[in-house]
Amino acid sequence: MTGSRGRLGAYLVFQAQDFLLMRAALPTLLVLMFGWMMIKTAPAGIDWSAPTPGQRILNEAFRTLSGMFITLGAFLGVARMVTDDRANGYFRFLFSKPVSVVRFYTQQWVLTGAGLVILTGALARLLGAVTAPVPVAAPMIVMGLTWVLVGGVGFALSAATNHDAPLLVVAYVASSALHALKDAPHTTMPEWLQQVTRFTIPLHRLDYVRDQLYAGYPMPWHHVAIVVGYGAAFAVAAAVILQRASLSR
Known about the structure:
By secondary structure, the chain is an all-alpha fold.
């Protein structure tokens, strides 16, 4: 057991490099690029702390940039997390010594989520430093919840199939569309479709938590519990699949 943990610790450096170079680099660079464009195209001499137009432009930019990083970070962070090692045969090298498959990928999943949360806070700090103070804790919390939810579903799909990335996109888009249709005024969904919608990814609850936090309201714990519970269930399912199914398929 101790030897297995030691080898997992040695793999931590490899997993951190994979996270920084292959998963976090693109969303980080995109946010930096769009943030720079936003600042450069702002009116000359703008006072970012003034209600109009400074705070209005900054609030729009903050929501756009944070949404871009959080969504892209969650998708790129979990996409093909297990699939690449399975499809390319890397698992033969990674697990040539007695290392727990479940612990290895759980460690990678936790590391990626923690890294995305830290980067979210760092980027928010950077935006606030060059403009005016913006919320830091709120986007970090939203990033963490998004990772548990979207990252949990993606983790299970990656453990179960070689087509996890497109399936995750389809599940995400379908869930968003169904919940939007269900909540739209003057729209009636068939009863069977309403029941199906109940089991889709609760992105509407994640959006509600985000809006509440960004507006400075208290944490809506009921919605948080549903988001965390849904994502955690899929993360546990991923661990069970990794425990029982062979990677050589």
